[in-house]
Write a structure and sequence with these properties.
This protein has one domain. It contains two helices and four strands; from the N terminus they run αββββα. The longest helix has 10 residues.
């Protein structure tokens, strides 16, 4: 937990939501609902001016040191075309 809080302190206001663990992923399709094979186990929300800036924020995140296969997926919020002026 100390490493997570140190990361929070390092990012300051750029860390919009510290995050929380995720689980019980379900896939929803037109055909129904089934368990998902998602490997996502947590989330945080960052605010950055670019993808490069966001990637730098997580480049040496402590979760990457847990095991060989740990990874972080960075998703960018996309604008909704119908809401663009």
């Amino acid at each position: 937990m100390q490493l997570w809080l140190a990361w929070k302190d390092k990012l300051g206001a750029a860390l919009v939501h510290l995050g929380k663990p995720l689980g019980n992923a379900m896939r929803v399709t037109q055909g129904g609902v089934s368990p998902s094979d998602s490997d996502s186990i947590g989330m945080s929300i960052l605010q950055a001016n670019s993808m490069d800036e966001a990637l730098e924020m997580v480049r040496d995140h402590h979760h990457l040191h847990w095991s060989e296969g740990c990874e972080i997926t960075v998703l960018e919020e996309a604008p909704i075309p119908e809401q663009q002026a």
